[in-house]
Design goal:
five-stranded antiparallel sheet, transmembrane, alpha+beta, eight-stranded mixed β-barrel, 27 helices, binds ligand C2E
Length: about 775
């Protein structure tokens, strides 16, 4: 440490030197004035007077010498005393200086002093260390030598403040040092000159970087502790010593209620002691545990917590505390369960859906593979479900499905599964049947039959007592011989067979069905080619009146398959409907029929009326009317020659839409025929509302005429009803003269059937027409 030199005090002052001289002068003057007069008064004898005067002179010398001695002695003594005191003062000053230097240099704080211009007057060892500059270099220099320019304004500002306010102040100053950025707690105070004027300042700077960091960490920790998660801090013995607000919110316990207790206050009672045993074992071994846990709130309600417990170890390595952090994941779990339910269960019946069923089938296949026991899939479809839905509304249909699900579940074993694939399709998965195919088939049949009977019992759907039947298809499996998807398909095919065989029955899948299935899928892919490769044709079947005159024809679609030859529509129209191909096909039929009508017209041989079949899917298209209009416009056909055939089920499907479209088409001049009349659930109410022109008696009622009494009555009734409604009646499928005679007798007006002509290609039909024209 360096410091400035003090001026030594003066030893003798002028007044102290004058005093003995004055004393001597006064004594001598008094002696001269009064001693001679006294001696002359006392001694008149001259000799005596001379002697006494001599002695008086000697006495004066002796006295003055003594006086002088005393005075000089005293003066010297005083000077010695003064010198000693000065020496002592100097010593004390040097000691103080050394003390100050020692304090400064041994202090862990950086100590410095600056003059009013900021130049260093004092620079301690610690100051030199942290700045990396020797005191000798720094003294006389200012802070620009030590710190980057950016940091200087703050330091100088603080210095100025201290000097201006003339008082000691404390600042936090962040400066760059050899230890990096350091935060100093700087106490700075003014230095004064002998007149008490501020002549600079001193500073004591303490490095508080670590403390600041700690404070920051504590601040962050405090914020973290007050997070969204419930937090609790316990002692090693489990006693809760701190909780956060989220803890109180999640558990309902305030700090006052929780502190001093253990987390056992949250125990739900849902976990075995072994659960906690394993948990604590892991915490002690690994210092950490994370997992799900049921907890109980203060109000008794339960919640699932996602909990993390961390052990805090002291410096001695022993656990001092535990920190627990948890969040309430109950709603998360519920949402997951809901997602799972939506993904794997049918929302209406709560039965497993197709996806879950497929999983279960795969598991069942694996089980069967191991056990070598058969299992079975029963595919079930409610008969005529669509009619119920259409006529009574979806809510009644839904009720039936829910009731069906309940009945199915009641008739299977716990280990079996019931699933709903959608619509009115259900699947039962039976496991662990017999080990021989025969035994398994008997068991599966028993279950299927039981179910068929159970479903045949009447359903009470609100007000409605409903009699349902079901068609069931059964496919057996053993091990992994078939995939889940194939098995489902087999059972579906068998069910389809049950439907074809008259419904309300059950069928086993057999390989010949499989062949049919494969053929079907082959046909499907071929059908995609049919349109593109011009393989479709329209055939025309004549329609006659009672006078045996040709009054029109029905356009019937044929598919000229390159390998199979002529494929009848019964084989491919349902397929086309399933695949959606019916839309382009139907459009082609319409266009082709219109083109043909126009061609006949142009040839001067106009056909009175051409009936065209329209499928439900085609008719339901929103732009169906526009399609017909376009076909008429592009061909130039006369709309009055075009008749559209609709079926009962189509009309029933959406009466309002049907009515709307029929009216629009009728305005164009098109007429309508109701095909297959009598086969569906006819409703007289709608018949009167629709702008129909013709009723076609289905050929199934014609086939056994005139012998079948029932069919005869039906045919008669239809004719009477149609006549009553002002509609023309056409009998379809007339094959014999007897049939025609019977129908004619009962006032049927028109006929179509093999008796007159089969459906013919256009050229042959033209020939036929010429024959009829020739016969007139
Ligand atoms: N046993 C017997 N059958 C007779 C007799 N007279 C006519 N038939 C057949 O009866 C069916 C009458 O047609 P449909 O009832 O409209 O029934 C049609 C119709 O629903 C549908 N279809 C035909 N062409 C088309 C079409 O272009 N579009 C649509 N959507 N469906 C069509 O395919 C069904 C079957 O058509 P086809 O096989 O041509 O069968 C035709 C016809 O060949 C007879 O005396 N005895």
């Amino acid at each position: 440490m360096k410091h400035d030199q003090a001026t030594p005090p003066s030893r003798l002052s002028a007044p102290s030197s004058l005093r003995p001289v004055v004393v001597y002068a006064v004594f001598a003057a008094l002696w001269i004035l009064f001693s001679d007069q006294l001696v002359a008064a006392l001694f008149q004898d001259p000799a005596k007077l001379t002697l006494v005067s001599t002695l008086k002179g000697w006495l004066f010398v002796a006295v003055t010498s003594l006086l002088l001695y005393g005075l000089i002695y005293r003066q010297l003594d005083l000077a010695a005393q003064l010198a000693r005191r000065e020496q002592a003062a100097l010593q004390a000053q040097a000691d103080a200086q050394r003390l100050l230097t020692e304090i400064c240099d041994n202090s862990s704080d950086a100590i410095y002093a600056k003059d009013a211009e900021g130049r260093y007057l004092l620079f301690s060892r610690e100051a030199a260390r942290v700045t990396g500059q020797a005191a000798a270099t720094v003294l006389g220099q200012d802070d620009s030598l030590l710190f980057p320019a950016a940091e200087l304004p703050a330091i100088r500002g603080n210095d100025q403040c201290v000097m201006a306010e003339n008082r000691t102040l404390t600042f936090e100053e962040t400066v760059s040092t050899v230890d990096g950025k350091v935060v100093f707690l700087s106490t700075k105070g003014p230095l004064h000159d002998s007149q008490g004027q501020v002549r600079g300042l001193f500073g004591i700077a303490r490095d508080i970087t670590a403390r600041k960091l700690l404070e920051e960490e504590q601040r962050i920790a405090a914020i973290a502790f007050e997070s969204q998660e419930g937090m609790l801090l316990t002692q090693a013995d489990g006693m809760i010593v701190r909780i956060n607000r989220a803890f109180s919110m999640l558990t309902g316990y305030s700090a006052a209620e929780a502190l001093g207790h253990t987390p056992a206050m949250l125990k739900s009672g849902r976990h075995e002691p072994a659960f906690f045993g394993a948990m604590w074992q892991q915490i002690h071994e690994h210092g950490y545990w994370q997992g799900e846990l049921w907890n109980r709130r203060k109000n008794g309600s339960l919640f699932i917590a996602w909990l993390t417990i961390s052990a805090v170890r002291g410096e001695d390595g022993h656990i001092s505390h535990f920190v627990g952090a948890f969040s309430d994941i109950t709603s998360h779990r519920e949402a997951e369960a809901e997602i799972h339910r939506l993904a794997y269960y049918d929302p209406l019946t709560q039965l497993p859906n197709r996806r879950l069923l497929q999983d279960r089938i795969r598991q069942a296949l694996a089980t069967s593979q191991r056990s070598r026991h058969y299992g079975a899939l029963i595919f079930l479809d409610l008969d005529h479900f669509k009619n119920l839905n259409d006529t009574r509304g979806h809510h009644v249909g839904d009720q039936l499905l829910v009731e069906t699900a309940l009945r199915l579940n009641r008739h299977v074993r716990e280990s079996d599964s019931v699933a709903r694939l959608g619509g009115d399709e259900f699947v039962l998965l039976l496991e662990n049947l017999g080990s021989s195919a025969q035994e398994a088939a008997v068991q599966a049949e028993q279950v299927a039959e039981k179910i068929r009977e159970a479903l045949a019992l009447p359903f009470q759907l609100g007000e409605l007592t409903f009699h349902a039947t079901a068609s069931l298809g059964i496919a057996l499996f053993l091990g992994h011989s078939e995939s889940a998807e194939s098995l489902l398909k087999y059972a579906d095919v068998a069910m389809y067979q049950a439907k074809t065989d008259g419904r309300d029955t059950l069928r086993f899948f057999d390989p010949s069905m499989q062949t049919a299935l494969e053929e079907r899928s082959q046909l499907e892919s071929d059908l995609y080619q049919a349109l593109a490769h011009d393989q479709l044709q329209l055939y025309y079947q004549a329609q006659l009146n009672n006078q045996h005159q040709l009054i029109g024809a029905e356009a019937l679609l044929r598919w000229q398959h390159p390998q199979r030859g002529l494929v009848p529509p019964g084989q491919f129209i349902p397929l086309a409907e399933e695949t959606g191909l019916i839309l382009p096909i139907g459009q082609w039929v319409l266009q082709q029929a219109c083109r043909q009508l126009a061609a006949w017209q142009q040839a001067g041989n106009a056909l009175q009326q051409l009936s065209v079949n329209v499928s439900a899917r085609q008719f339901r298209q929103p732009d169906f009317v526009a399609q017909v209009e376009a076909a008429l416009a592009s061909s130039g056909a006369n709309p009055t020659q075009l008749m559209i055939e609709l079926t009962e089920s189509m009309v029933l499907d959406d009466v309002e839409d049907t009515l709307h479209k029929m009216q629009a088409l009728r305005r164009l001049g098109i007429s309508f025929s109701l095909d297959d009349f009598g086969t569906g659930n006819s409703s007289l109410a709608y018949l009167t509302r629709l702008p129909l022109d013709e009723l076609k008696i289905d050929k199934s009622f014609i086939l056994n005429l005139p012998h079948s009494r029932n069919d005869a009555i039906i045919a008669q009734t239809i004719i009477a009803m149609a006549t009553g409604l002002g509609l023309r009646v056409l009998a379809e499928g007339v094959e014999t003269r007897a049939q025609q005679d019977f129908l004619q007798q009962h006032h049927c007006q028109a006929y179509q059937g093999f008796l007159f002509s089969r459906p013919l290609p256009q050229a042959e039909f033209d020939l036929l027409r010429r024959q009829f024209q020739a016969a007139v």
